[in-house]
């Protein structure tokens, strides 16, 4: 504090690097689970998509948005989540290390804190970790292209994984055989294998698996019971009260096309 005397050691602070994010740019923090291939196996994740794990990831991301400042949108798939801070945020004077470490630690502690709510009879066997990185995007177009890139990645991986695990679980192929079967195939080939061999129309697979999860702030009506104290009555009376709150709401929609951004122009202000 200002009133505290400075010691002769104070100069060591000057060794701290300046990591201020460039002014007026979008700041993105992306987290990714550490060695989740192994974590998924040890915790018996359903293959190719464990919905408990995806919902837990989204709960953690909602907690991050509610606890930290100025996050306008988040996007998640598999073991990763990206958080976008508003262009003109001045949270922690835009220091990249503060953004990244607060997001990563809040997310990781939430993952452990809420584990039981999603994995009722699967104990958490060891403490999971997440890496983080900060990327700064200078324009709305580069930010939208960043998010499109992550959603395209979700699509490519999920199409591959859906066929790969069908070949293993339904046709009895080994992982090596399934990989060989898919070598060099295009998206159309994978759709065709799913349809002709497994009677699966990929477009009917759950949206959460195909599109990932977008979190945006939306007004929601909450009904809660409130005790109303009336001056004429000794006992409080319970009443249902509806109030409006702004919450991070999950959507499983396309964010690559223009429609999403036209529908939510406020996100990019
Ligand atoms: P790294 O530490 O380099 O990130 P990783 O093993 O986490 O290594 P990723 O490329 O991040 O590698 O892949 C995450 C892996 O976690 C997926 O390949 C998948 O095996 C597993 N995984 C993550 N989420 C789920 C889920 N919801 N359902 C099933 N498996 C999942
Ligand atoms: P910031 O988010 O800026 O770090 P802060 O409240 O964590 O805010 P610090 O300067 O880090 O501020 O100080 C940590 C505070 O936490 C201490 O001032 C003290 O009040 C409390 N605290 C931390 N550890 C202990 C402890 N072992 N026993 C009692 N109080 C503690
Ligand atoms: Mg990786
Ligand atoms: Mg990972
Ligand atoms: Mg990953
Ligand atoms: Mg502190």
Multimeric state? single chain
Bound molecules: adenosine-5'-triphosphate, magnesium ion
Order of helices and strands: EHHEEHHEHHHHEEH
Strand order of the largest sheet: 4-1-3-2-5-6
Cα-atom Rg, whole angstroms? 23 Å
Q: Describe the global form.
A: globular
User: Structural class, please?
Assistant: alpha+beta
In percent, how helical is the residue content? 25-40%
Helix run count: 9
Whole-number mean pLDDT: 96
> Approximately what portion of the residues adopt beta-strand conformation?
15-25%
End-to-end gap: 37 Å
Strands, count: 6
Unreliable spans are: none
Biggest sheet, open or closed, and with what strands and sense? Answer: 6 strands, antiparallel
Describe the structure in your own words.
The structure is a single chain. The protein is built from nine helices and six strands, in the order E-H-H-E-E-H-H-E-H-H-H-H-E-E-H. The chain is of the alpha+beta class and 269 residues long. A six-stranded antiparallel beta sheet has the order 4-1-3-2-5-6, sandwiched between helices. The radius of gyration is 23 Å and the shape is globular. It starts with 25 loop residues before the first strand and ends in a 6-residue tail after the last helix. Bound molecules: adenosine-5'-triphosphate (2 copies) and magnesium ion (MG) (4 copies). One adenosine-5'-triphosphate binds next to strand 1, helix 1 and helix 2.
Per-chain topology:
Blueprint: E1 26-33, H1 36-42, H2 51-67, E2 71-77, E3 80-85, H3 96-113, H4 115-118, E4 130-137, H5 140-169, H6 175-182, H7 187-198, H8 207-211, E5 213-228, E6 237-251, H9 259-263
Antiparallel strand pairs: 1-3, 1-4, 2-3, 2-5, 5-6
The chain binds adenosine-5'-triphosphate (2 copies) and magnesium ion (4 copies).
